[in-house]
Amino acid sequence: MSERVLEIAGLVRRYGDLTVLDGADLTVAAGETVALLGPSGSGKSSLLHVAGLLEKPTAGEVLIEGQPTSALPDRALTALRRDRIGFVYQFHHLLPEFDALRNVEIPMMAAGVRHDEAGRRAKALLESMGLGERLSHQPAQLSGGEKQRVAIARALANEPALLLADEPTGNLDQDTSGRVFEALRGMIAARGLSALVATHDRNLASRMDRILTIKGRKLVPA
Fold this sequence. Notes:
This protein has helices spanning 44-51, 74-84, 100-110, 115-128, 144-155, 174-191, 202-205; strands at residues 4-15, 18-29, 33-37, 59-64, 67-68, 85-88, 162-166, 194-199, 210-215, 218-221. By secondary structure, it is α/β, with parallel strands linked by helices. The chain has one domain: 3-Layer(aba) Sandwich (Rossmann fold), CATH 3.40.50.300. The strands form two sheets. A six-stranded mixed β-sheet has the order 6-7-8-3-9-10. A hairpin with a 2-residue loop joins strand 9 and strand 10. This is Lipoprotein-releasing system ATP-binding protein.
């Protein structure tokens, strides 16, 4: 695996007088899964937000599939996030007024996919997540694990090259957490995605290709 889907070089991230990351470096190769291990408040979310182009670094560079992003205008950053990066968060952030199918269709339609094609792809994604009987259910009618699986399907809707997940099972009980994580890992493997997954769960982290942690405001092997 020589192609680098994500590169972070010399990352500095400050919030006022607080420095969270200082000279952090990271590469994620094509098809590689990397766990980012550490307790809440250690800087994992900040790193993911910068990697996902949701926040600008104080210093340093982020490259997506070899493309430097620091000088890109907002419109180009938005398109890159939409087309090449998928996000899964601790809380599902599903739109409560829409059913599971429509929640997964929306990102595709925002990217210009026709409604019938978006529906076909959303249905296939949800079925592959074991949710074929839940297509017309709204979030309030789904269990915690089901909602998170819908969120994973939504993150994969635009066929991203990179998946970023921030404590994707942190709001679930242990048994449900394991099932959702295995579903996530299976989808990553089936699509040959690169993934950076932040977690505090060492057991889940151990199932990925590499484990990193934040120490001294830098990324080091765990």
